[in-house]
Amino acid sequence: xxxxxxxxxxxxxxxxxxxxxxxxxxxxxxxxxxxxxxxxxxxxxxxxxxxxxxxxxxxxxxxxxxxxxxxxxxxxxxxxxxxxxxxxxxxxxxxxxxxxxxxxxxxxxxxxxxxxxxxxxxxxxxxxxxxxxxxxxxxxxxxxxxxxxxxxxxxxxxxxxxxxxxxxxxxxxxxxxxxxxxxxxxxxxxxxxxxxxxxxxxx
Length: 203
Known about the structure:
Elements: H1 2-20, E1 32-34, E2 40-42, E3 50-55, H2 62-72, H3 75-80, E4 83-89, H4 93-101, E5 110-113, H5 118-122, H6 129-133, H7 140-149, E6 166-170, E7 176-181, H8 191-201
Parallel strand pairs: 3-4, 4-5
Antiparallel strand pairs: 1-2, 3-6, 6-7
Helix pairs in contact: 2-7
């Protein structure tokens, strides 16, 4: 009896959490934030541009680091489509600065520190310890190993350990054209899929 009660409670929590998630076709919540090394960002003022909001775990997460480097290979292609890329992390500004300083190349992406998780709450990006632990069944160990190789120096991991991530693609009017909530660590839209979605939206 206790098992079924617990199962029903977990199911209800999961259903409620999914109901809160942002949906395609709806305006993305606007916000103001500080991009590391840049001026303040006002999402409302980015209308007229396509926008990728990529919620990561933290800059010290090797799996996130691997995805960021893969996405960087599409930086020029996304820029050609008029896409502004915002990488949102739980890491504080000082840690993100240390991370960016490891690479001599300039970044066209904007890195946003949200260590208070205000934007995570706004976009309903939640931690899940269960899904975090299950990430090992989705190639997390291999991705972690590859991501570690891309660091010059070790970067501390900060923020809620069970945070996963999410990707939101916005059109020029700030409307969500694609919303992806991670089911495990490293479960982001592939750079190719992101590029194709924005390319399709440009037609």
